[in-house]
Design goal:
CATH topology of the largest domain: Aminopeptidase
Number of domains: 2
Helix content: 25-40%
Distance between the termini: 32 Å
Shape: elongated
Structural class: alpha/beta
Number of strands: 20
Number of helices: 15
Largest sheet: 9 strands, mixed
CATH class of the largest domain: Alpha Beta
Amino acid sequence: MTDKDALIQPDRGQDATPIHLVDTDGFDDWSKKLTASQRANLAAQKFTGKGYQTAVVPDGDAWFAVGGVADTEKLSAWCLAKLAEVLPAGTYRLATGDAGAALFGWQSAQYAFTRYKDDKDAEGPRMLLTKDVAAIDGMIAEAEAVNFVRDLVNTPSEDMGPEALEAEAARLAKKFDAKLTVTRGDALEKGYPMVHAVGRAAARSHAPRLIELEWGPADAPRIAIVGKGVCFDSGGLDIKPTSGMALMKKDMGGSAHALALASLIMGQRLKVRLHLLVPAVENAISGNAFRPGDVLATRKGLTVEVTNTDAEGRLVLGDALTKASEDGAGLIIDFATLTGAARVALGPDLPALFTRQDDTADALLEAGLAYDDACWRLPLHDGYREMLKSDIADMVNSASGGFAGATTAALFLDRFVAEGIEWAHFDTFAWRPAAKPGRPKGGAALGLRAAWQMLKKRYNG
């Protein structure tokens, strides 16, 4: 991962190559200030000021860069990202104004996952100078959190099993002087029976566990962050086809989001009492795998009839949400790569958001739009609760028929969050199937910055 500290630095008058930002409305007036040969150079590069267009223009013995943006008066997080991808290594500054939100995308665009190969062809960092010194630490922290999610999700399951998630939590606990508690293997059977049932078929090296981290003053508002940590999902005995397993290393994407958000909360010293919970399992197949038709006990005391072993994420989250509720959280936010239905409805870019309260949804949606991490709210429709009825247990884990799959999954989780608790559930994809400027193909943080900005505004405002 590129060293983010090298990518944005305070502007103290260092030598730097200028970057001019131009939109289509202002291109003609701006280009009139150039020499005839410079205008010809731009024409040869077919530069007209459209978003994400880039050009390099000679200027005597030097040169300057030009980037097309949608609106020079309102820079998005991504408007400098293409430049950060294609410009030569070096130091840059904007010719006028400051980068603002685009400081994030400048860093994000230079991410590379290099755990398994040498990045010998990389040109080196492109550093952007900024006069907004107060924004640097926060922007670096957000970029590091997003790249942390990418690193974890991109890592293959053999190297990112439950024990690896525990190691990441332990690293955070040590770094921020937090308390780490881990319940592993058969010790889960009594306290977290659904986590145990889903994870018990995995090899001993990938044994299931419930990972908890606590940090912050005891008298601060208590919040819980919960992340689905299914490190590989075969589907269980309701086995997935080969095509369905191809990306299942990313099924722990919810836990990656939760760990990254916890890191932001602790690193930026948010005024909260944090409770992080990650149920970490591998949904494997062996002689002791849980079966379709089994009835599972739960920490909450409900019983769940298993109608689909491939709907395992909601099971492990159920026990974790119960624990978060018991420990007095006033707000619970969970992240999970939970349903294909959410992807059918919203595609890969938009995480589905479910909340009990309108003001919770409004705050998260507003933060997402303001910080270029858009989410989309789907309904917790009470009328669909009957789809989860069981003839022999309190509920089934997966409704039949395929209707409203994202909503019925969220309604399942809702049963395990205590009444009166403010709750938000992100059904996120955690993956980008095609690259966009600043957003490479592969592991992706979707909903993370929205949640972070909402929490920061609420608890540090």
